[in-house]
Recover the amino acids of this structure.
């Protein structure tokens, strides 16, 4: 958890420095570990609030979808399994659906990219069997990945789903 917090804090600092004075960000704020309350919670059970690692939005009191831009969750563990990432993936879906964030981002560093894609493909399959409306969210949900050697990858969940489905066709 500490490494994730340090990574998130550094990303927050770099993002703020990069966007300071930029007119595209004039009415937006970058939030680091900002507490949000659950409203109609169908994705994350038994929680009253949640804390995204980073968000880009107008404010805590503004829910206009035009100003709910990016919701980000971060994982820095080298070994990931579905149990470790499912809560963060669910929180992001909840934010996209309930708070109408335009984009969800899952950042993973130090993990195996192929394994992570497989976990996400399995997650997508299990979630779509329960919630058909999710299909339209996958194109706006992204995986950003960097391994310990510095290789970087990014894909939409829609691309991960499509590649997984194509590789499992008979």
């Amino acid at each position: 958890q500490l490494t994730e917090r340090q990574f998130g804090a550094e990303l927050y600092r770099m993002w703020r420095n990069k966007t300071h004075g930029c007119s595209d960000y004039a009415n937006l704020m970058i939030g680091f570990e900002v507490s949000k309350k659950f409203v109609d919670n169908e994705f994350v059970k038994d929680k009253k609030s949640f804390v995204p690692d980073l968000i880009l939005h107008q404010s805590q009191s503004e829910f206009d979808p035009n100003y709910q831009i990016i919701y980000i969750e971060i994982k820095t563990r080298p070994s990931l399994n579905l149990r470790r990432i499912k809560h963060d993936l669910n929180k992001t879906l909840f934010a996209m659906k309930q708070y109408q964030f335009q984009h969800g981002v899952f950042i993973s560093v130090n993990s195996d990219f192929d394994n992570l894609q497989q976990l996400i493909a399995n997650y997508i399959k299990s979630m779509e069997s329960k919630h058909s409306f999710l299909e339209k969210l996958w194109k706006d949900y992204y995986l950003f990945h960097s391994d310990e050697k510095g290789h970087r990858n990014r894909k939409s969940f829609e691309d991960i789903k499509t590649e997984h489905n194509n590789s499992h066709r008979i």
